[in-house]
Amino acid sequence: MEQDICPSNPSRINYEEIIQSVHLDYPQLMRAADYVNEIVEEEIALGIPAEKIVLAGYSQGALLTLATALTTKHRLVVRKSLDLELNLWDDYPIIAGVDEAGRGALAGPIVVAAVVAVEYSVSFKSSQEVEVKNPLGATKEAMVEVILKLQTKPNLCLIDGKEEVKIEGIKTISVIGGDRKSINIAAASIIAKVILTEVTYLLFFAMEFATYTGKVMNR
């Protein structure tokens, strides 16, 4: 009789190895910014004033907007987003952003990322941990972990959401809709989502492979 079995536990996957395998292509971002700048130059050549050209975006698009604004030689209009840090840098020169992915999912781990300057850290909470600690508790614990993992200690941590996260010796501010307001939170959001996608794919592949192997062995 054919029987589905799972001889290995996919939840024991090595998350740290996954972090190393994920490729975050910063050069590609700058190539994309160069392409947008070329479009801007074409529009200006057609007679459109630079101050009438508006750049805007959300999540990855917001990062591209910022990269373009920082590299263009024209004074363009940049939509007011991802500029929260501009009001804070005088008092907090080193600001980190924190966000999660997977807290609302039906299965799989929760992934939390922190970003400061060009450095980032990631923490995972397996489905077993989430069941014991509940999604919110596991997420808050992971948020503390990723901040403490950073080699560059931030003066301030901006955390996406409304829940308060306390870290000894580091000021934190919870920001509702933070991935639309803070460049660091937006970057952390992208990293967390990219890694969660990679983890989810590998978990699904491991489960399918284990089920297939079980069927073959029981024929």
Automatic annotation (TrEMBL):
Phospholipase/carboxylesterase/thioesterase domain mapped to chain residues: 28-76
InterPro entries: AB_hydrolase_fold, LYPA1-2/EST-like, PLipase/COase/thioEstase, RNaseH-like_sf, RNaseH_sf
Leading EC class: hydrolase
Catalytic activity: S-hexadecanoyl-L-cysteinyl-[protein] + H2O = L-cysteinyl-[protein] + hexadecanoate + H(+)
EC code(s) of this entry: 3.1.2.22
GO CC, alphabetical: cytoplasm
Pfam families noted in UniProt: Abhydrolase_2
GO MF entries: carboxylic ester hydrolase activity; nucleic acid binding; palmitoyl-(protein) hydrolase activity; RNA-DNA hybrid ribonuclease activity
Swiss-Prot/TrEMBL keywords: Hydrolase
Function: Hydrolyzes fatty acids from S-acylated cysteine residues in proteins with a strong preference for palmitoylated G-alpha proteins over other acyl substrates. Mediates the deacylation of G-alpha proteins such as GPA1 in vivo, but has weak or no activity toward palmitoylated Ras proteins. Has weak lysophospholipase activity in vitro; however such activity may not exist in vivo.
Family statement: Belongs to the AB hydrolase superfamily. AB hydrolase 2 family.
Protein name per its UniProtKB record: Acyl-protein thioesterase 1
